[in-house]
Amino acid sequence: MKTVSKNSIWLPALFEDLFLDNKLDVLNNYETFSIPAINIIENLTKFGLEIAAPGLQKENFHIEIEENTLKISYNKEIEDKETERNSKFIKREFNYENFERSFKLPENIELDKIHASYENGILKISLPKMEEKKVLKKMVEIS
């Protein structure tokens, strides 16, 4: 996504802090919710998803497929309510306690061979493609 400079004649720096940087989070609670970034990769044999989710526990991720839709969610209980009550965030740009992302899968994915791993803060999901049927080509002689 292209970043637009807000410091201009029409929108002076004085008003910069009044506007939210991430327009996608406006409908959600901006102070306590973020959606992790994702990469989608395709090669000849598979699709790959990489989700940037540093500091999360793999046990709290849930990946399910229903009607050709891949749903990735993360649910974590807030553990330290006392610290949260006695502290105030000056700025909060991430909080991955709960999130959900959904993706429509192409029809050529082998659902039973999908694999996921979580390493170094990246959740990787491998979506193997079905092998294409080889078309036999034969020349027929006209008599």
Automatic annotation (TrEMBL):
InterPro entries: A-crystallin/Hsp20_dom (IPR002068), HSP20-like_chaperone (IPR008978), Small_HSP (IPR031107). It holds the Pfam family HSP20. Residues 29-143 form the SHSP domain. Belongs to the small heat shock protein (HSP20) family. This is Hsp20/alpha crystallin family protein. The lineage of its organism: Bacteria, Pseudomonadati, Bacteroidota, Flavobacteriia, Flavobacteriales.
